[in-house]
Amino acid sequence: MLRIGKLPIAVFALFIVAFPWIAHKVPPIENYTDIMIFVGIYCLITLGLSLLMGYAGQISIGHAAFYGIGAYTSAILTANYGLDPWLCMFFGIILSAVVAVLVGAPSLKLRGHYLAMATLAFGIIVYIVFNEETAWTGGPDGMTGIPGLSLLGFAFDSVDRYYYLVWIFVFAAFIFTANLIQSDTGRALRAIHASEPAAGAMGVDISGYKLLVFVYSAVLASLAGSLYAHYLNFINPSTFDLFFSIKLLIMIALGGMYNLWGAIIGAGLITFLSYEWLHYFEEFEVIVYGAILLVVTIFLPKGLAGTPEIVEGWFRK
Amino acid sequence: MNFIGEDNILEVNRVNMAFGGLMALSHLSFKVKRGMIKAVIGPNGAGKTTLFNIITGSFPPTEGSIIFKGMPVEHLKAHKIAHRGISRTFQTVELFDNMTVLENVMLGCHTRIRTSFLASGLRLPMARKKEAQIREKAMKILKFIGLAEKFKDPADSLPLGEQKILEIGRALAGDPDLICLDEPAAGLNETETYVASSLIRAINAKGITVLLVEHDMKVIMNISDEIVVLNYGQKIAEGSPDQIQNNARVIEAYLGSG
């Protein structure tokens, strides 16, 4: 559950580095590099969210809103005011963190799933704001003219370049989160998960840590939103609706919330399903997600990342 | 200058605790001198665990105050009280069963040594140094309580007796001034009970004040300096083990009036 081995990270890093090169060689998967950019963007969100769900034991049904706040902050400040994209990304993060404190602080002081309800309402409100504040957001038509990203004159203007940029962020977030779990902070989170009365009695500030993790997950979602906006150069509100928040939860349930690899596996599979493999089902796609959620909760409560444990159990018998 | 703090580490002043219409504690007052082992006894439902929960901040009393080292703490949350120097164990073992023996004790150090969010995430040298400190301290405590060899085992794989001992170790890791033990001998066999009582004495010898709830009279009479007796949320007697053993009201509460 805990140790994030160096070898799996190295193997995975190698795979990510080599992926665009392989995709170019194999025509049927040539467009997969583009999809992998979205996988990376969603991984940023699911990493934070799995920490929130698996370790702090809280559910957020409103992370599409933080994703949207990041995207719109970047879009509005760059397209309308011409500010530096990196600076706007940073502003988006600050705004998301402040909003997360405002939403999270009152609901995380209470025991139980109040955060789920608060974020559900919050997500819907933010979605309405994106649609109605036409002067700022362009309303349902969305916004165009969002510039791409460049650093010191190097423009991330091709799919391959943007791919590497996004995955550098993902690796940074993955390592930061893995360090966190294996530190004193992670121990405190696991203690909260195991027994709140005992954690409190040992000096762990329960609502403080839950809030910290919620804010961290909001910051990652906001960063993902900014990366999304600068990649597509166009955003509209439908990307940030309630269904996306639920899709994120399905990613985490499928991958497994007690293991950081689960966040990556879940984001990868669901993204490829929805972008590539489920076209055939058209609007019945939703039923497939429902079936996945059903099967996973019944047969794989720890998600796909928990299967090695199950297999190990068979052999022990 | 705090003269109260010099002598009495803990004062319970006219504490009332009502759960709806039920008075779990009424007008309870007593003091705990620094450095002693004080036991709280009483029949089931007398309010002993409620008292512990109030002292350690699980919930505030309906009325009254708790003074710890000269400062009122009854309004503080559990983690703040832990930082002030009160630690506890639980009647039904509340170990972190998703952690190893060592990690349980390491978590106990949380009140004294902590790393910040950023330092942990970036794995700064400072964070690594602190983590090593925490580990070293936790190992020292495991040696003290005699569980050093099992440091790698999952906490829930230990037998009940050792789980109770481990809980005491975890509580010690925060360097408390006062440790509240809720039935440390409950469910233990004779050997385990002997180990637990010697450990409590050893903790006390380190200068840590012990407040103890226990049903095992042999343990109580053996190790405590003073005893408070509760019945239906009220104090019915207080004194040395000898005084309590001969107190008519205590005998009546335990055996019923005949």
Q: Low-confidence segments of chain B, ≥5 residues, pLDDT <50?
A: 1-5
**Strand percent estimate of chain A:** under 5%
Sheet with the most strands, sense and barrel status of chain A: 2 strands, antiparallel
| Name of the CATH first level of chain B | Alpha Beta
Radius of gyration of chain B: 19 Å
Helix content of chain A: over 70%
Low-pLDDT ranges of chain A: none
**What series of H and E elements makes up the topology of chain A?**
HHHHHHEEHHHHHHHH
DSSP strand count of chain A: 2
The pair of chains with the biggest contact is:
A-B, 28 and 38 residues
* Total domains of chain B: 1
Oligomer state of the chains in this structure: heterodimer
Can you put this structure into words, describing what you see?
The complex is a heterodimer of chains A (317) and B (258). With 317 residues, chain A is mostly helical. Chain A has a single domain, classed as Orthogonal Bundle (ABC transporter involved in vitamin B12 uptake, BtuC). Chain A contains 14 helices and two strands, in the order H-H-H-H-H-H-E-E-H-H-H-H-H-H-H-H. Chain B has a single domain, classed as Rossmann fold (3-Layer(aba) Sandwich). Chains A and B meet through helix 7, helix 8, helix 9 and helix 10 of A and helix 3, helix 4, helix 5 and helix 6 of B.
